[in-house]
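Quick one: structure for this chain?
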Amino acid sequence: MGAPVETEAVLAFGPRGIELARAAHEILQPRALTLLHDGPPPARARFDTCPDTLAQIAAARPGAFDLVLAGGGLETASLGRIRDDLGRIVEILRPGGTLAAVIDTLGAPDPDGACDALLFPHLARQGELGDEPRTLLPAAAWILLFQTIGLEIRSVQGLGEQEMSPDMVERHAARLQIYDSGELGTGRLHLVAGKPGDSA
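Got it. Here's what it folds into:
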């Protein structure tokens, strides 16, 4: 997860936030574990659940967390909102704190396994492909975005670990030639980044 064993306060959110919160509870055993979750609390949860937004938590609890686990979902917003959300995460991290994020990049297949969002990015941005709107950024752009908001990249996993089907490449060669093959081979990116400073 990219977190030190002595992590005391953890925040988890996103579509895979519940699984990450459970894993953090078992592995890290932090003193405080909060799940940002707008539904009912998960059954037998051994952590706090909070229906607030990142903006509300940033305003109420700046510098309160050693670790933030983003279990997907960052890409389902406009670029401006993504930048704002990342800025809020930086606000709620303590100096030296860690953000571990799972991000679907432009090379990630759609939930049904197709690549419509990649082939028709303008429709994906508008949410016209049946899913939430999605901002399709290549892995390199995600890394740069993390760095420009003040995070230091500690580790990156997932680069070039996915292969597109030969049929997809053949049928859509003209459309796909504008992309770097390494970026197309990175569907799900795992980024671990840190807020500069010494933890107290």
